[in-house]
Write a structure and sequence with these properties.
- The complex is a heterodimer of chains A (412) and B (129).
- Chain A is an alpha/beta fold and 412 residues long.
- Chain A folds into two domains: 39-295, Type I PLP-dependent aspartate aminotransferase-like (Major domain) (Aspartate Aminotransferase, domain 2, 3-Layer(aba) Sandwich), CATH 3.40.640; 297-411, Alpha-Beta Complex (Aspartate Aminotransferase, domain 1), CATH 3.90.1150.10.
- Chain A has 14 helices and 17 strands.
- Chain A has a seven-stranded mixed β-sheet with strand order 4-10-9-8-7-5-6, sandwiched between helices. In chain A, strands 13-14-17-16 form a four-stranded antiparallel β-sheet, covered by helices on one side.
- The mean pLDDT of chain A is 96.
- Chain B is α+β, with helices and mostly antiparallel strands.
- Chain B has one domain (2-26, 41-127): Sufe protein. Chain: A (Alpha-Beta Complex).
- Helix content of chain B is 53%, strand content 12%.
- Chain B contains six helices and two strands.
- Chain B has helices at 2-5, 11-22, 66-79, 84-89, 94-97, 100-127, and strands spanning 46-53, 56-63.
- Chain B has a two-stranded antiparallel sheet.
- In chain B, strand 1 (46-53) and strand 2 form a beta hairpin.
- Chain B is globular, with a radius of gyration of 14 Å.
- The termini of chain B are far apart.
- The model of chain B has no long low-confidence stretch (mean pLDDT 83).
- Classes of the chains: A alpha/beta (412), B alpha+beta (129).
- The interface between A and B is medium-sized, with 13 and 13 residues.
Chain lengths: 412, 129
Amino acid sequence: MKNNIAHIRSQFPILHQEVNGKPLVYFDNAATTQKPKQVIDALQRYYELDNANIHRAAHTLAARSTDYFEDTRKTIQQFINAKEDAECIFTKGVTESINLVAQTWGRTNLKAGDEVIITTMEHHSNIVPWQMICDEKGATLKVIPINNEGELLMDEFDKLLSAQTKIVACVWVSNALGTINPVEQIIQKAHAVGAKVLLDGAQACSHMQVDVQTLDCDFLTISSHKLYGPTGVGVLYGKRELLDAMPPYHGGGEMIKEVTFEKTTYNEIPYKFEAGTPNIADVIAFKYALDYVNELGQELIAIHENELLNHFVEGIHQLNKTNNNAIKLVGTAKNKVSVQSFVVNNMHHFDTGMMLDAKGIAVRTGHHCTQPLMQRLGFDGTVRASFALYNTIDEVDSLLQALSSMVKFAKR
Amino acid sequence: MDNFSLFDGDMESTLFYLMDLGNKLPTMPDEHKTEEFMVKGCQSKVWVYPNFTDGKVQFEADSNTAITKGLVFLLWSIWNNQTPQEILNTELFFIDKIGMSRMIGSQRSNGFTSMIKQMKMYALAYSNR
């Protein structure tokens, strides 16, 4: 990838601009990734040539739109190796995917006394939906603790698991820390007590290969916009037997088989869960993002991103040697993706973020929608740099250089 | 305010200057930094504690971030020890003049706006005394 990085960057138009008079360095990829020209072109082409509502009319444009829409479903099926494309439901995003499971599977399967297990490093979107349904059903939410490096304490997980455990809803890769959780083990242990497993794959799917059949997870959530695709599109993967048994989420068009004022029968999956006109254009363009990632190869992408991460972490260690450990790395798990949180001593994370922005470097600052995790680690927020396939070692060096001058300023 | 024109829109120098300005704010006692006196809307925390003596409003103010503290200092230096009417009559041209709205972005501008509103609210309350 190093050899064709210039070519890769040329496919991302947004990267070629100045911010505050400096070349843009985009390191906020865990919040959202930029889109290649292929995706942007697909969006424009759809509205210029193909726009029509899907699954309904007899005319040619509608047929074409429907085909393209369903092509994306087939592509995502292959991308995660689902048994059939009907197991892939389009949603607005990961948040909606999780809410869908909590409100349909949760509503029919949870009762008073049952337990739902999550982890300390969940995004709010994998906490609040479970709190809501647990409150409603009288079920209890249990939390797997972590160590100071940001790794799950699996012994504690063993202690939490019991016959009362109905589902383990677990983030695969932490958005704030980059930790890759041992989901294979989690799934195996959860299944052993008869519990289902939902994996929040928002961060994972852009960094690693996914095979839901080998993993044997029951649900997996995917975000398009964190995978170089458009915003407003997510996927919920679920095993057919579970999806078939779940009641619909939203009522409306598309999700019905037959409607009378007395009784409505519901459509098959995936349509049962896709009420109303979906986000057709963005779903269609999402396919081009998946094709793009497939073409580059996820293994090569991961190698490149790990190089960037290692270069950054090594750079911080060097910087710390001559600056009295002025930068604290937050999230130092052995197994992680190219996401690194940190704080600069004597400097609020927000000031650090603003100062980096002044140098054209975009990072995320704050609690990263993981307030319980921040409380556990003793921070009210961090600065987070997250690296993607189009980032370069030179860009990482710009960040290191900026941090080096900032550390000197903070020390005064 | 004229000092800002020296930076000619250079964001980094402006931020450094703001952070320096923040250090000039008199220390605010911790016991006044309560929820009641926190200004909502800022990404970072801001506290404004008013007092009214001799027909003038005195403000204690602070922020937990250095850049915001600089912004707080600008407001403080304009409004501290002014009459409620003077505060209510002020139009804050400097926000645009130093390119604040462009630099700070809407999210923070909104926080800054809430800070201005809060200080004017206190002035309004004292103006009826």
